[in-house]
Amino acid sequence: MYSWVFIIILVAMMAGFVQGVTGFGSGIVMMVFLPHILPISQSAGVSTLTMIVANFMVFWHYRKHLHWQRLVRPFSIYIVVAIISLYISQFLAPTYLKILLGILLVCLSLYYTIMNVRKINVSSIPLIIMVIFSIISGFFNGMFGIGGPLMALYFLTISKTKETYLASIQAFFLIDTVIMTSLRFSMGVLDLNSLKYVAVGIIGAVIGTILANRLVRHLNINVMTVFIYIFIGISGLYYLITALI
User: What are phi and psi of 88, to 5 degrees?
Assistant: First the structure.
């Protein structure tokens, strides 16, 4: 009867660990499993809110390395698109969107892996690419609660240290969580009953984040970069395969 408790704790631990190490990915990990328990729109809301404590823990740990001004432009675009997408998601089936998301993530993974292997360094991202990243991330965040991969690539590229990267990406999604969760409650996507899943998930997410914080001290930015690229590719393959089956 309460098997969902163990499932959510385990999944949230995995999500917290991935989020703590890479700065993103919790939504992808949780959305692999939560739709088997909850409707997909509710799963997205639970997934996002579950990570709020873990997000704050990582952000607080690296807060001194944050440059707020770097968040303003991408977040302004991102959140507007996410809000529009959230409303649209109530009327659209997600199958074709999952296929597009899977293809996008696989292509990005291959592209950035090749760049990393060949030691091609990108020191800056053009304004138009930042806008595209923000629009795509906001769109899929509203649809599935998954907005991390492209924004992770963006902040990873513009950050000189792993501490700055983690502070930026966690602050970004912490603000996003507050806004999007408020909207999901107002629209009835989430309700008070959803909070029991969130409460259990927070426990697992915090444990996973603590484990990640211990490990990330021993990683350098290059190792983190490779980990992120591989994880993006695996995530893309999962969504592509499950959408086509």
Answer: -65, -35
